[in-house]
Automatic annotation (TrEMBL), chain A:
Keywords: Signal, Transport. The lineage of its organism: Bacteria, Bacillati, Bacillota, Clostridia, Eubacteriales. Gene3D superfamilies: Periplasmic binding protein-like II. Residues 28-49 are annotated as: Disordered. The keyword Signal applies. This is Raffinose/stachyose/melibiose transport system substrate-binding protein. Belongs to the bacterial solute-binding protein 1 family. It comes from Ruminococcus flavefaciens. SUPFAM superfamilies: Periplasmic binding protein-like II (SSF53850). Residues 28-43 have a biased composition (Low complexity). PROSITE patterns: PROKAR_LIPOPROTEIN.
Automatic annotation (TrEMBL), chain B:
It comes from Ruminococcus flavefaciens. GO terms for cellular component: plasma membrane. It is a multi-pass membrane protein. The chain crosses the membrane at residues 24-45, 85-110, 122-144, 156-175, 196-218, 254-275. Pfam families: BPD_transp_1. This is Raffinose/stachyose/melibiose transport system permease protein. CDD domains: TM_PBP2 (cd06261). The lineage of its organism: Bacteria, Bacillati, Bacillota, Clostridia, Eubacteriales.
UniProtKB/TrEMBL annotation, chain C:
Keywords: Cell membrane, Membrane, Transmembrane, Transmembrane helix, Transport. GO terms for biological process: transmembrane transport. InterPro entries: ABC_transporter_permease, MetI-like, MetI-like_sf. Belongs to the binding-protein-dependent transport system permease family. It is found in: Cell membrane. PANTHER family: ABC TRANSPORTER PERMEASE PROTEIN (PTHR30193), INNER MEMBRANE ABC TRANSPORTER PERMEASE PROTEIN YCJO (PTHR30193:SF37). It comes from Ruminococcus flavefaciens. GO terms for cellular component: plasma membrane. It is a multi-pass membrane protein. PROSITE patterns: ABC_TM1 (PS50928). This is Raffinose/stachyose/melibiose transport system permease protein.
Length: 443, 290, 295
């Protein structure tokens, strides 16, 4: 009797397994089908015989739907790589939108399917992947064939270095600036502000001329928080001291930064509370608002979406601050990649002259290598940003990316949005941040 | 889409017989209600043929010229074509498997004579109360270890399992209703138990299979959360995920987004228009029993 | 025949596939989920038992508070509104002859459509520059409402909008359930009441309503569970924004679990959700029973 029962169990287990296998082969079919539907078709050349090394590259914009010129440049690079190494390597891009990016990346890491190469923002986000050993050190590859020497200076690796080892390769640098509509400024009689009072004055004039002075996104919290970051820096908020507990959020600095934010918020577009980053940026290049405070990565987006706008777009440094927020896209290599050589070669493709030239001339971002590019064909805004950059007395990171953990950064973003929405007074925000730091960040 | 008109047309001959004022009020009400159902869909349909500029310059006019550019963009760049195919594979596979496995268990509970039958039923029924969200994390980590995450199989398994309770419940009802004599006479003719199940009971439970199949298919076809968590590969995403990711709140190419929405709902609308009465009644019957 | 039906091997073959699947994919994960909720567990680390810490953190988590409040709002709103509107539609439809099917099918249509797609559709309709605001602009309304971006009030406008969209989408289901029950009431009973001089309204009040009470409980429990599981519409209409004000338990769980990979903490939210679902089901089941005795 017992034997029979065991037999029955095995039988149905086998049945279960066959159904699984059934689905499995099903799934293989469908994935190869979709591979051939995909844009870069060399996937099937190898026919899965194992002669082609498959790589994955993960990025935060949809390469097939995007109008962003930087993203399109990355797409070119990927295609270039796939063509040059046809039959040897093949890269598949895994893409998500920016908001979902880290969700998906974390999911893949947890699943043990870390993409071979993936993009990360320097700061705590990179730390999240360096500390548990998800990202591999890259010095070995950088030191080979003089790759490292092609970069403008070793300083470009500062944010990517942990314990003397480089864990990510920057691809370009962008600086957060104020972009403005020169035509609107002229018509309103506003002049380019150099300090906070002039900024308020300019906004008032723009408002009087029936323009929306500033477009910003509070729906995408980091956009608003970036402005708050500038204001905090102007007030002298010291993040490292806050993190180790030698300074308090309640010392009045954050409070006065928040008050300034509220002053500025009178000039925001009506829908700032819910507008997402893309919508807020569209307000600017569709000439519905005069000033956009954004990183220079938007140049690619602005010129890609509305090419006619380039001639009207000016740039000035965020008034009242002598430093500038800078950020670079960086690529990491998975420590578990089966083919580190290919992965490193792929990263190298993003910093070769073709890619870097494109970065400057088409994308409008500051290249990281010593590449010679033709400034006359590069977007006009890049020249302005370079000017702002060279006049600035230094750079600092995004506020939310300069805090101890990603969650702390997100909490800061949310708190700033709450202040903007009037759910918290500046004093309450300071208290809230202090409490959050006490419970989560200081040990 | 023209169904509201036909309703009005149907109304005429009857109202000629006797016109009660209350009836007129009811019809006015119903027509107003139906407008809230049809107008938004028509608006999206209309806008999906426009250019981005037209949406803002003439929001409610008919499109200047009808092109399918928006659609082809959404279909290829938004990967809705692949996604529709994936959704179809996932839904059909989980539909067939859940019907077979579910009705087998239902037969075991309804007709086989063993002590644990009632207990087994209760066990399966608790599944109906459990929201998918609660098992999301353990399932995700486990599938990740088994290499099932990011595969279509990894999606079929939970879809199939979550359709089981309702399938078992409804099919048990149907199998219990089959007269004993039928099974007895089959027995006399020397049929074994599996023949009785596949040749007699399953065909007799056709209506039940239709109802559960419909519920399973529609539920899985529209499922977003699990698919979003489990699938990260663009080539394996299902329709609701690809749509949400493509449209998302992050896009400003409105006309293409509208085309994507239409692509996502049009197959269901067509099928629904063709079999609406059967579908509505079937789903209602399923819900009553559930 | 009896021997055939008592064949243990056959029973096993019939039951085991479903049983194994169910246990592996549903039951064990539930147990695991409860265990994880007592653990400090992040994506890259292994779970470490920490007792009730996650639940303690939940109590101080502002967003969780909002999410719980919003879930409760949806629960109550959907139960009440689906009952009232569903009954109203059913009453209207049972009182007409021509075109009943057409109306019924139109109202039921959104129930079978993807709520992800419909959520996106309504997101555009209520977006500040499109849809309704374009209409309002045409009619000369200055400063039209911000709809999904409004943040004023105790229960903010976006919550009401999402609640009404949910009502719009799923009321067909309730309506059909009530209609099915009403059409089951015997004609002779209705006729008797007319002969006794009852008006249609009175018949509805004294005959129809009491007889469909059990169905009310069924429909309500469907709505209640459905509204607790709410995810698609919110995810696609507001993503929990502005500033987490439209977050519900399901979206908060998704955020915490898959954005910050706090698996342990997210599991605790899941357990709260599970308990709520069980409580609501039990509560409504009890109501069903008492009412069946009344019949």
């Amino acid at each position: 009797m017992k034997k029979r029962r065991i037999l029955a169990t095995i039988m149905s287990a086998a049945m279960f397994a066959t159904t699984l296998v059934g689905c499995g082969s099903d799934n293989n079919n469908s994935s190869s089908n979709s591979g051939s539907n995909g844009s870069s078709g060399s996937a099937n050349d190898g026919g899965g015989s194992g002669s082609v090394e498959e790589l994955t590259w993960m990025f935060w914009d949809d390469l097939n739907a995007t109008e962003d010129l930087i993203s399109l440049g990355y797409k070119d690079t990927i295609e270039r790589f796939n063509n040059d190494f046809k039959g040897k390597y093949h890269v598949t891009a895994i893409t998500t939108n920016l908001e979902e990016y880290y969700n998906k990346l974390n999911a893949l890491v947890a699943a043990g399917e870390t993409p071979d190469v993936f993009i990360v923002s320097p700061g705590p986000q990179l730390t999240d992947y360096v500390e548990p050993g998800v990202a591999a050190p890259l010095d070995e590859y950088l030191n080979k064939d003089g790759w490292k020497d092609t970069f403008t200076s070793d300083a470009v690796f500062t944010q990517q270095t942990y314990d003397g080892k480089i864990y990510a390769v920057p691809l370009n640098t962008a600086a957060a600036c104020c972009f403005y509509n020169t035509e609107m400024f002229e018509k309103a009689g506003a002049k380019v502000p150099t300090n906070w009072d002039e900024m308020m004055e300019a906004c008032e004039k723009l408002k009087a001329a029936k323009y929306t002075p500033v477009t910003i996104s509070a729906g995408t919290a980091w956009c608003l928080s970036m402005v708050a970051g500038y204001l905090c820096d102007a007030e002298g908020v010291d993040l490292p001291k806050l993190a180790d507990g030698s300074a308090s959020w309640e010392d009045g600095k954050l409070e006065s930064a928040c008050n300034k934010l509220l002053d500025l918020s009178k000039y925001f577009q009506r829908t700032a509370a819910g507008d997402t980053n893309d919508v807020a940026t569209a307000n600017f290049y569709n000439e519905e608002a005069a000033i956009l405070i954004q990183g220079s990565w938007v140049i690619g987006q602005i010129n890609g979406s509305n090419p006619d706008f380039e001639s009207k777009c000016g740039v000035f440094q965020f008034p009242g601050v002598d430093k500038i927020i800078a950020k670079s896209d960086s690529l990491c290599m998975s420590s578990k990649t089966k083919n580190p050589e290919a992965a490193a070669t792929l990263i190298k493709y993003f910093t070769d002259d073709t890619a870097q030239k494109y970065t400057a001339e088409k994308g409008g971002k500051i290249p990281v290598t010593k590449v010679q590019y033709d400034a006359s064909v590069a977007p006009k805004q890049l020249g302005y940003v370079m000017d702002v950059f060279s006049n600035a007395k230094g750079t600092f990171g995004f506020y939310n990316e300069s805090m101890p953990t990603t969650e702390t950064g997100a909490h800061f973003d949310d708190t700033m949005v709450s202040v903007f929405l009037g759910d918290m007074t500046p004093a309450e925000a300071a208290k809230d941040m202090e409490e959050f730091y006490k419970t989560n960040c200081r040990k | 889409m023209s169904s509201s008109k036909s309703a009005v047309a149907e109304l005429d001959p009857t109202s000629r017989k006797k016109i009660a004022p209350i009836q007129v009020v009811i019809y006015v009400f119903l027509i107003l209600i139906c407008i809230t159902y049809i107008f938004p869909l028509l608006w999206v349909f209309n806008v999906s043929f426009k250019t981005n500029k037209e949406i803002f310059s003439a929001p409610f006019a008919l499109p200047e010229k009808v092109t399918f550019d928006n659609y082809s963009f959404a279909w290829t760049a938004g990967r809705l074509g692949i996604a529709t195919f994936n959704s179809f594979v996932v839904c059909v596979a989980s539909l067939i498997l859940s019907m077979i496995i579910g009705s087998m268990a239902a037969f075991g509970i309804a007709r086989m004579r063993w002590k644990g039958a009632k207990l087994a039923m209760t066990y399966f029924l608790t599944g109906m109360m459990i929201p998918v969200h609660c098992v999301l994390i353990p399932l995700f980590t486990r599938f990740a270890k088994l290499g099932l995450s990011n595969t279509i199989t990894g999606l079929i398994l939970p879809y199939l399992t979550f359709s089981l309770p309702i399938t078992i419940f409804i099919m048990t009802g149907f199998f219990k209703g089959i007269p004993n004599e039928l099974i007895e006479s089959a027995c006399m003719e020397g049929a074994n138990i599996f023949q009785i199940f596949f040749r007699i009971c399953l065909p007799l439970g056709r209506t039940g299979l239709f109802v559960t199949g419909l519920m399973t298919f529609i539920g899985n076809w529209n499922e977003l959360l699990l698919a979003m968590v489990f699938i990260s590969d663009d080539a394996k995403k299902t329709l609701p995920v690809s749509l949400s990711k493509f449209v998302g709140p992050y896009n400003t190419n409105y006309s293409q987004m509208f085309a994507a929405i239409i692509i996502a709902i049009i197959p269901t609308i067509i099928v629904y228009c063709a079999f609406s009465n059967k579908i509505v009644d079937g789903l209602t019957a399923g819900a009553v029993k559930g | 025949m009896d021997k055939l039906l008592r064949n243990k091997k056959a029973i096993a073959v019939f039951m085991l596939p479903a049983f194994i699947l169910f246990t592996l994919v549903l039951f064990i994960p539930i147990v695991q989920s409860v265990y994880y909720s007592f653990c400090d567990y992040k994506a890259v680390t292994d779970p470490v038992f920490i007792g009730f810490d996650n639940y303690k953190t939940l109590m101080h988590d502002k967003t969780f508070g909002i999410a719980l409040k919003n879930s409760m709002f949806f629960l109550i709103f959907s139960c009440v509104s689906q009952l009232v509107v569903g009954l109203f539609y059913a009453a209207l439809l049972t009182n007409i002859k021509a075109g009943r099917n057409t109306f019924k099918n139109i109202i039921y249509l959104p129930c079978v459509l993807s709520s992800a797609a419909l959520g996106l559709m309504w997101m555009f309709i209520f977006s500040p520059k499109l849809g309704i605001n374009q209409l309002l602009e045409k009619w000369g309304v200055e400063e039209p409402p911000l709809w999904l971006m409004d943040t004023k009030g105790h229960i903010i406008l976006p919550m009401w909008i999402i609640a009404f969209v949910a009502l719009w989408q799923y009321v067909g289901q309730s309506m059909m359930l009530y209609m099915a029950q009403i059409s089951g009431i015997s004609k002779s009973l209705m006729e008797a009441s007319y002969i006794d001089g009852c008006t249609k309204a009175k018949t509805f009040r004294y005959i129809t309503l009491p007889l469909i009470k059990p169905m009310i409980a069924t429909a309500m429990s469907l709505n209640a569970i459905g509204s607790l599981k709410f995810f698609d519409l919110i995810y696609n209409m507001t993503e929990g924004g502005p500033n987490h004000k439209t977050e519900v338990l399901a979206t908060h769980l998704y955020q915490q679990g898959f954005k910050y990979t706090k698996y342990g903490y997210a599991s605790a939210i899941g357990v709260v959700l599970l308990i709520l679902c069980l409580l609501v089901t039990l509560f409504i089941n009890k109501v069903v029973k008492t009412e069946q005795y009344e019949m």
